[in-house]
């Protein structure tokens, strides 16, 4: 390698010399293959380069019009193979020449030998949260099922609906029908549920939830006094007596259960007598009978302020005969419930 003298000798052994007249030089490198041939611009990768005339100390470059990327950790394994690393983070996507530069400055390259690709952008799926605008009806009595309609936005097929309240088990919506993205219908079984406000919740299959705080009110069901009075039994008495008979206590206890269940209602005790005796006597006797029942109820915990007594004497018989088969039915105290306190005449008509 290097410059050599050129010497010519003739037959007479005379010499002519041209100093440094001939140069012996190494060939330029060539690049024939690069593995891998491409990579994303978010990593440091290793390259294997094949070719010829590689020399120890050679440099490796990936080059295009915008930038050069120099390789590191270069290992010239032989004159035909090089291993190295290149940092492709943030590299411009596109085709690159692969260059090998020997330490004598000679260059070999492979046009479009390596491709830098951009990292695919993740597909962002926007998950829209549902919203509840209202529920109709917004309240119901706790004596059965109720059909509701929930209005809002972004409801999905398969959404779940429930009523929730701190300290209580959630009530799941039944027969839920998503009528569209803005409306859901469903039933709730609120039988026996405690009174008060409940949150309304809708959960889409994606897991996104909508929440309407205190959106539904459960109210206590109170039957009308007319319905309750059909369940109440009269208490019957012996002739000319105001004392409570033992055989009447079971019926009175059954009445007591209803009276205590609805403390907001007024209690009217109507005392009656059979036709025997004077008007004045029977009015007094029927009053004593009603007062006896009032005393019993008060002893069982009923607020006496709820109780009003009306004495009717023999004016309103339950049976109109003139013998004992009718008289025993007329010696009675009728117990009735009212939403408001009635007059004496009103109480008898109900």
Count of runs of 4 or more consecutive helical residues: 5
Number of strands: 24
Computed Rg: 53 Å
Structural class: mainly beta
Q: How many independent structural domains?
A: 3
Q: Report the portion of residues in β strands.
A: 35-45%
List unreliable stretches of 5+ residues.
none
Looking at the overall shape, the CATH architecture of the largest domain is 2-Layer Sandwich
What is the CATH superfamily classification of the largest domain?
A: OmpA-like domain
Q: What about the largest sheet?
A: 5 strands, mixed
**Basic shape:** rod-shaped
Average pLDDT, all residues? 93
* CATH fold category name of the largest domain: 60s Ribosomal Protein L30, Chain: A
* Broad CATH class of the largest domain: Alpha Beta
Instruction: Report the helical percentage.
Output: 10-25%
Oligomer: single chain
- Distance from N terminus to C terminus (CA atoms, Å) equals 132 Å
Order of helices and strands: EEEEEEEEEEEEEEEEEEEEHEHEHEHEH
Structure description:
The protein is mostly beta strands and about 350 residues long. The chain has 3 domains: about 30-115, Immunoglobulin-like; about 130-220, Immunoglobulins (Immunoglobulin-like, Sandwich); about 225-350, 60s Ribosomal Protein L30, Chain: A. The protein has 5 helices and 24 strands. Strands 4-11-10-6-7 form a 5-stranded mixed sheet, with no helix packed on it. A 5-stranded mixed sheet has the order 13-20-19-15-16, with no helix packed on it. The chain has a 4-stranded antiparallel sheet with strand order 3-5-9-8, with no helix packed on it. The longest helix is centred in the C-terminal third of the chain and has 21 residues, at about 280-300. The mean pLDDT is about 95.
């Amino acid at each position: 390698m290097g410059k050599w003298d050129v010497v010519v000798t003739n037959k007479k052994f005379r010499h002519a010399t041209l100093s440094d007249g001939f140069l012996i030089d190494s060939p330029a490198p060539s690049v024939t293959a690069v593995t891998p041939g491409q990579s994303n611009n978010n990593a440091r990768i290793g390259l294997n380069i094949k070719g010829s005339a590689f020399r120890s100390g050679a440099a490796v470059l990936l080059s295009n019009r915008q930038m050069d990327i120099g390789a590191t950790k270069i290992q010239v394994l032989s004159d035909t193979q090089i291993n190295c690393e290149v940092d492709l983070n943030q590299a411009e996507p596109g085709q690159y020449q692969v260059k090998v530069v020997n330490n004598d400055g000679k260059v070999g390259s492979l046009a479009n030998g390596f491709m830098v690709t951009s990292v695919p952008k993740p597909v962002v799926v926007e998950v829209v949260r549902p919203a509840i605008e209202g529920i109709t009806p917004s309240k119901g009595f706790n004596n059965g099922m109720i059909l509701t309609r929930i209005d809002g936005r972004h409801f999905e097929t398969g959404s779940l609906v429930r009523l929730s309240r701190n300290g209580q088990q959630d009530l799941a919506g039944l027969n839920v029908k998503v009528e569209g993205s803005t409306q859901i219908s469903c039933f709730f079984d609120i039988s026996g549920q405690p009174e008060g406000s409940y949150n309304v919740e809708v959960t889409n299959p994606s897991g996104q939830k909508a929440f309407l705080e205190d959106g539904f009110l459960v109210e206590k069901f109170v039957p009308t006094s007319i319905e309750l009075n059909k369940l109440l039994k009269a208490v019957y008495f012996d002739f000319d007596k105001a004392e409570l008979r033992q055989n009447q206590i079971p019926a009175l206890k059954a009445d007591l259960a209803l009276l205590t269940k609805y403390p907001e209602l007024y209690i009217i005790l109507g005392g009656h007598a059979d036709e025997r005796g004077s008007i004045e006597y029977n009015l007094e006797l029927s009053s004593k009978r009603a007062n006896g029942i009032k005393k019993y109820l008060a002893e069982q915990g009923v607020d006496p302020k709820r109780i009003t007594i009306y004495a009717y004497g023999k004016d309103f018989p339950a049976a109109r005969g003139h013998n004992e088969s009718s008289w025993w039915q007329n010696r009675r105290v009728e117990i009735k419930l009212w939403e408001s306190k009635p007059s004496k005449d009103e109480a008898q008509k109900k």
